Amino acid sequence: MTTTGGTPPPTHGIPAALARAVLTGGVAGVSLAALVVGGITENAPLFVTGLVLPAALGLLSFLAGAPRRAREAAVVPRTALAVIGSREAGGGATSEVPVRFGLTVVPDDGPAFRVDVTQDINVVDLPDYRPRGVVVVRYPPDRPWRARVVERPTPEWQERAASARLDPLPGTAGAVAPPEGPTLGFVAPLGLLLGAAAVVLLFRADLVGRDGAPKPPSAARPSASSTSSTTVVSSASATVLLGPGRSFLDPGELGRALDSLTGEGEARRALTVVVGERLLSVVFSPTGTRTPGFDPRALPHGRFPALVKEATTALGLRSPRTWQLTADRLTGSLVIRVVVTGAEGTASLEADGQGRVARRTSAR
Rounded to whole angstroms, how far apart are CA atoms 2 and 317? Predict the structure, then answer.
């Protein structure tokens, strides 16, 4: 959900948000660099570190947030009527679609306020949520910007909503969520760059030594660089770094990159494919081993822009800063994950091998 306007918010949480942004960006940079460097140098512990580190950070974040979640759970939510000022329904591959509501909440014991809410609604129920319609909402009194539409209210509240006549307030939303601060927009990318640089510097001797050693044509291909992109391919991994102004979400960009890495007619199977805004990394299955790999060219990369858009706009992040898409078969079936970080925390979604969304996890 997105909220604007209102009185100036407190700033005491900005140092903690800065620390979280640096840590999250640093871990993302270390993880990505560990996957690439570990694959190029065939350093198995480093490669495994790149896989495990994000999961460890997620676990630590969950444990660190347990006291806050306990305090928030102890707050008794309030129930109130609200009138729909605007409604914008997004797209989705499932029976539920993200809907953005502009609500005017009218508490029984306080002044009315506006709030913008993004919530998944079943497509069958969409006709019940028309502009100027009255709905029932529930929200924590200390965090009114977290208001949620009650889809199945009690009979008493259903009767009140049916008989109420409310008018939406003009203007923008008035329930204010704490902002991320003016400096947080570049802190996470800075942490990502520092984390990646630290891994490259620590293992630069292995990289230089490996680049200087002679390799047979079947083990590696020469690096190619231009003003538009840089490509590095070895027997264990491959990376593509796009130049400024280009993105792997641009039409056809990712497909061309995957074709160039795997080669026409070759059946090089991948363990993991990691896609960022401008960086693509593929870790190939070792030759002669039976690992749960997949053909990276068969990925539904045409669906990737829609998956990233949904993850960055419909999972509760007001100002998403970084995103990363990962495809692997570590659990047996192909899973595509999009992880997005922002001031509100981390959100993610999972899709199957056809790009159909199977699970969404909103920011907390």
Answer: 8
Which amino acid does the sequence have at 270? A
Please, which contacts does 227-234 make with residues 24 or more away whose CB atoms are closer than 8 Å?
A: 229/257, 231/260, 231/261, 232/40, 233/261, 234/39, 234/40, 234/210
The count of other CB atoms within 10 Å of the CB of residue 226 is 8
Q: Which two tokens stand for residue 329?
A: 């078969």
- The reported pLDDT for the residue numbered 176 is 53
pLDDT digits (tens, 9 = 90+) for 70-84: 877 788 889 999 999
Q: 42: buried, middle or exposed (CB in 10 Å: 19+, 13-18, 0-12)?
A: middle
Tokens of 262: 């795997």
The position carrying tokens 């490996």 is 210
Find out whether 203 and 35 touch, Cβ atoms under 8 Å. Answer: no
C-alpha gyration radius of the chain: 24
Of the candidates 279, 272, 278, 331, which has an alpha carbon nearest to the alpha carbon of residue 296?
A: 272
Tokens 């960022």 sit on residue: 276
* Burial call 57-93: b when 16+ CB within 10 Å, e when fewer: beeebeeeeeeeeeeeeeeeebbbbbbbbebeeeebb
Residue pair 38/51 in contact (Cβ under 8 Å)? The answer is no
Q: What band does 157 get if pLDDT is binned at 50, 70 and 90?
A: very high
CA dihedral (186, 15, 312, 63) positive or negative: positive
Q: What residues form DSSP beta bridges with 137?
A: 80, 149
From residue 314, alpha-carbon distances to 244, 346, 362 in Å are 27, 13, 8
Tell me the C-alpha to C-alpha distance, in Å, between residue 278 and each of 73, 231, 263, 364: 40, 12, 21, 27
User: Would you put residue 192 in left (φ > 0), alpha (ψ -120 to 50) or beta?
Assistant: alpha
Length of the chain equals 364
Residue 250 in contact with residue 229, Cβ under 8 Å? Answer: no
